[in-house]
Amino acid sequence: MALFSYQKGPANKEEPRDYVKVAEPPSEPMTLGKLLGGFKNELIKVMIESKVAGFIIPLVMILFGLNLIFKQVWPEIEQQIRLQTGAFDTGSLALVEGDYISREKYLSNPGSEYFKQITSEAQDKHILLEDPDSLAYRGRFTISIDSLGLYNLPVTGNVDSSDENTYKSVLNSGLAHFKGTGLPFSNVSNNIVIYGHSSSGDYYERTKDIAGAFSRLNKIKIGDIVKVKIDGKEYSYRVSKSKIVEPNATEIITGTTNKRTLTLFTCFPNGNSAQRFVAIASPID
Q: The domain spanning residue 279 has which CATH number?
């Protein structure tokens, strides 16, 4: 018989424990600020970890900023360079036979007093002939200058330019025909005058606001074709001259006695009423 004996004790059964479940904090909705913040943090992380990215990313941002500044400043610089070199003044050549809220700070506005003065002086010169047919016209017509990418710009006939409320209302949505000047359908050989706003910087190129369409006028060239469509009939004119004139130059209204011409003008430099850019065209028979 054994001196010692061993007996297995009862299994130690653990009492079941009560676990407390900790509630997770509610997730916050994703916002644009958080998204941009996360993107910024990732961008910084990439720039820190990669020397190449740390050089390229700031460079791209700098170039992007310079491009924005360039688009605003270069149009004015280009105009001044062309003005100083005489590129806007071109002599006559022998032709081949044949509503933005901020728009006010960009668009030129010579003022009603300017138009009153120039109208009075033009009448005193008695160069424009009496033309009852043209004067009676009260409709709208269109002009197109394909070379400038300007198509079917609306023109209001016989605008009283001495009334600022009248001409500003018209120029907000197109171009104006100077009251008392000729129209293509008339048999009287008078000068036809059409004018419109120009705008500073890249306002027109950025917005395509029709009020600033004549911002492109100073890029017109000798020989370019201007099409006037009125009462269902189209008339074509070929540009023979362009020039920069002082605001009081009445010849842009009167033209030449007994000569049928088309004169387009706008303020120059773009968005500034200091001078006028003028393009003169002759009818193509």
A: 2.40.260.10
Beta strands (DSSP E) in 113-224 are 140-145, 150-159, 175-178, 191-195
CA distance 253 to 177: 11
Q: Which residues contact 265 (CB under 8 A, 6 or more apart)?
A: 193, 195, 217, 252, 276, 277, 278, 279
Q: Which residues of 159-174 are buried (b: 16+ CB within 10 A; e: fewer)?
A: bbbbebebbbebbeeb
| Inside any domain, residue 18 | no
- 128 and 224 assigned to the same domain: yes
Residue 46 sits in the same domain as residue 109: no
Overall domain count for the chain: 2
Domain check: are 65 and 103 in the same one? no
20 located within any domain: no
Is the previous residue joined to 16 through a cis bond, with omega within 30 degrees of 0? no
Range of the domain at 246: 92-283
Q: pLDDT tens, position by position, for the chain (285 residues)?
A: 455 555 555 655 555 555 555 556 666 676 766 666 676 677 677 667 776 666 677 777 787 767 766 666 666 676 667 666 665 555 543 333 334 445 677 777 777 788 888 888 888 888 899 999 999 999 999 999 999 999 999 999 999 988 888 888 999 999 999 999 999 999 999 999 999 999 988 899 999 999 999 999 999 999 999 999 999 999 999 999 999 999 889 999 999 888 999 999 999 999 998 999 999 999 997
